[in-house]
Amino acid sequence: MKFGLYLPNFDPYGKARLIADLAAEAEEAGWDGFFLWDDIVIKPETDMVDPWITLTAVAMRTRRIRLGALVTPLPRRRPWKFARETVTLDHLSEGRLVVGVGTGGGPDEWDDFGEETDHRRRGEMLDEGLEVVTGLWSGEWFSHQGKYYHLRGTRFLPPTFQKPRIPIWVGGVWPHRRPLERMARWDGMFPLFFEATSLEEAYNQFCEAVQIVRAMRQPDLPFDIIALGATSPEEPEETARMVRAYAGAGATWWLETLAPMRMDPPGKTNWSFEQLRARVLAGPPRF
């Protein structure tokens, strides 16, 4: 299992330089990954940073850790612009980028900006957008005539630094079926359990989601399974038990969320930024 940090792109992390400094400290402390949310507004309003510009700063301050945004709602992005940005960051980081995608949620970032509000149509846009992005990543001549996107023959150079391409992790909210099917088609699953009322319920739902997705995949293909959680320095034995349980259920990554209390999984308490930074410096959980 690998261990990463998962941070919102707003207060208490509302400054790009602060996040880049924290990523450098995280790498030094032994973490394997550093991931940001991809939001454009949060209410009540607070300082925010653009995750992709910030990840550029992170790439320049680090040399080893994986990095990325989890998750980018591709239906509100131009796929060709996204393809160009991600290839650039893949080369800048020398192959450390992970692309996380999803359909997004909440009226603040969709309805309020005149974006597509229908979740089914957004799912279609995501699937078609991924066809476009991966076609442009290849570095070969590519054209596309679909329901939502239209490209005449074009070629994007350079191709991705990573071969055959940048890994794609798909996020989705349990228990919706279509995100699970989408996860099975790509390189990793990042399931979220917003309706879970306890840590035990979230774990049981995670196990069920993993079983469903595994049944739709060829068993010999590499695949990342991402578990989201929060450790407790006050209860190291309980933390170790939880991490072991997720590893036993098939998780290949443990992402530790360091978010404000209102965004945390069940059971997490609210910490000051100084406490959150101390958690980063303490390194990955030991189990």
From TrEMBL:
Keywords, comma-separated and alphabetical: Flavoprotein, FMN, Monooxygenase, Oxidoreductase
SUPFAM superfamilies: Bacterial luciferase-like
GO BP term (any one): alkanesulfonate catabolic process
InterPro entries xrefs: Luciferase-like_dom (IPR011251), Luciferase-like_sf (IPR036661), SsuD_RutA_monooxygenase (IPR050172)
Domain Luciferase-like: 1-244
GO MF term set: alkanesulfonate monooxygenase activity
Protein name (Swiss-Prot/TrEMBL): Flavin-dependent oxidoreductase
Species annotation: Anaerolinea thermolimosa
